[in-house]
Known about the structure:
InterPro entries: Ccp1-like, Haem_peroxidase, Haem_peroxidase_sf, Peroxidase_I, Peroxidases_AS, Peroxidases_heam-ligand_BS. The chain is mainly alpha-helical.
Amino acid sequence: MASTATRTFARAAFRSTPLKTSSRNTAFALPRQAFRQQSRRGYASEPAKSSSTGLFLGIGALALAGGAGAYFYSQGNGSIFSGSAGETKGLFVPKAEDYQKVYNEVAALLQEKDDYDDGSYGPVLVRLAWHASGTYDKETGTGGSNGATMRFAPEGDHGANAGLVAARNFLEPVKAKFPWITYSDLWILSGVCAIQEMQGPTIPYRPGRQDKDIAACTPDGRLPDASKGNKHLRDIFCRMGFNDQEIVALSGAHALGRCHTDRSGFDGPWTFSPTVVTNDYYKLLLDEKWSWKKWNGPKQYEDKSTKSLMMLPTDMALISDKTFKQWVGKYAKDNDLFFKDFAAVITKLFELGVPFDETTQQSPITFKPTA
């Protein structure tokens, strides 16, 4: 794998359709391109020696002045500086078009690798970006997407992160092709890409995250426990700085993907179209009748009509709590409002704890979808 650069420097087809088992199975069976077309929406580290101290200070100043972050790299032996003939070395300042190339590469892999779950790695990429960001603690300023500490066993092995090695491995070829981008920036960029490629809203993206070492790993228990209720949700999300409306909007990500018995212990998808961003999650919460699933696994709900969908205790807390339920109703009725609020709150989540003032002055990048 190519050496990593110095990182410290620097939609309407599914809307309002009848919720039948047959429609779910048909959607899953569609060829990838046909599925996209039919679901397309109209909007879319040693310390420096004394002799080189001045040099490294100069490098740091240049990196901070580089807008989106400056990266020193060399092709050959992977060192920052080298005298070997034929190596390319120096200051590389990535621009918006460079990040768009990374986006396009992730999108191409999403199109090529359709053998995961319901035909897309998209949902698990969103989950990776979400879980990398959701460890933030506003009181201590620790955690968040700035660090990519899930690379290390203490955090990567946390129960809430089970299965995310699939997403991290999926992105390794991208990291090898673009060694200048940090894992921290790559994971968030990939989450943005996945949302947009799955017909979701446009998510503005700012680079500037720096990878950290194992010492920055966060303690277990900072991510939501799906077996809990509304008090737990508020405890977890308020620690990050979110209010009730934002909690409900973020929960809309459950329109995507599914649970696995060998990971969380739960099983099944939340919606009939788990690879398309819609407001169906909210519609289903309100319109379907839900009952406890009779099985040997943890407590979860299933829909009475088809018994093919599931909801978690944390999901049902959104309609048992009066304040939460008001927002569930609003998003169930208005997909555009959900898209607007989801884009705003997921952007906030992805930027928690990132020192943009020190790493970038660049305006947010708006990526052009490929689908």
